Amino acid sequence: MKIIGIGNAIVDVICKVDDDFLLQNNLTKSTMKLVDETEFKKLLSNLTIEETIAGGSVANSIVGLSQLGNKVSFIGKVNDDEFGSKYEQSLLKEQVTYYYKKKKENIATGTCLILITPDSERTMCTFLGIAGKINENDINESAVKESELVFLEGYLWDEGEPKSAFEKAFKIANKTAMSLSDPFCVERHKDSFLDLVTNKLDITFANEQEILHLIDANSFDEVIEFGKNLEKLLVITRSEKGSIAILNNEIFECNSQKGLSIVDLTGAGDLFAAGFLHGHLNNMSIQESLIKGTEMASKIIQKIGARLN
């Protein structure tokens, strides 16, 4: 197996809203807010659903890698309920090996309400459900050991059970990569994330905002210096400013594609990671991997949702 993803198994519910909806519900644009099941249902009650699909950040990346022809697998926790069954079937349809046997739980399968405003930005309200209860017993040891790389998401990190799942994966993985996921996520777990980035991860994915938050930098020059001293691969997306990868004293840059008809930024970071990791796992150069990541991100932002087909 080329790669195994470990992440939140979340069913994405995609809806279009205007900016007033965000204001009325005290939501901060372009961020992810954790909600309980009651709040999730209340928000959804006034909306029209555009699309429902198996999601979660790492799962989106894993599906992208599968669509590029890689042998991939995924571990994520669902309930044996309607959404859990839909989730599993959606992954299997995309040729993803799913290393989790669902069973009846007291907590429902996780869901994420993705609100797309007219400027194509996405704001997420996530009910983690059983996804946030993943623990070390859910990690398939042989599947992790047999994969070239394990890809994790910052969204999943939390003290207690999810942390034990992370730590087990780190102990037995051949190589590890992680996305920092979200600025709020970074703020909540800053010390833990900094330790992961500097001491445990082989590859870190972040956007500009997330990495600035992580190291309390005042300028991007400080990020460059941090990356040079890290001795690990740091990959940063910068929206219209393109992307950059830093390894030791080498800096690689890739421009963003221009003239795109942008409709939804939901899967941009996830599919960028898929493209980059595809390059990395198939012996492309860092520069070629950045180009592949940019190509994948450019395709996905011109359609609704985080699936290329």
Name some characteristics of this structure.
nine-stranded mixed beta sheet; five-stranded mixed beta sheet; 38% helix; UDP-N-acetylmuramoyl-L-alanine:D-glutamate ligase; single chain; 309 residues; alpha/beta
Q: Number of helical runs?
A: 12
Query: How many DSSP E strands?
Result: 14
Number of domains: 1
Task: Decide which structural class fits the backbone.
Answer: alpha/beta
Low-pLDDT segments, ≥5 res: none
Classify the fold: give the CATH topology. UDP-N-acetylmuramoyl-L-alanine:D-glutamate ligase
Distance between the termini: 23 Å
Main beta sheet strand tally, sense and closure = 9 strands, mixed
- Helical amount among residues, as a percent range? 25-40%
Give the helices and strands as they follow along the chain.
EEHEHEHEHEEEHEHEHHEHHEEEHH
Strand order of the largest sheet: 6-5-1-9-10-11-12-13-14
Q: How much beta, percentage-wise? A: 15-25%
Mean pLDDT value? 93
Radius of gyration: 18 Å
Report the CATH superfamily.
Ribokinase
CATH class: Alpha Beta
- The CATH architecture can be named as 3-Layer(aba) Sandwich
Shape: globular
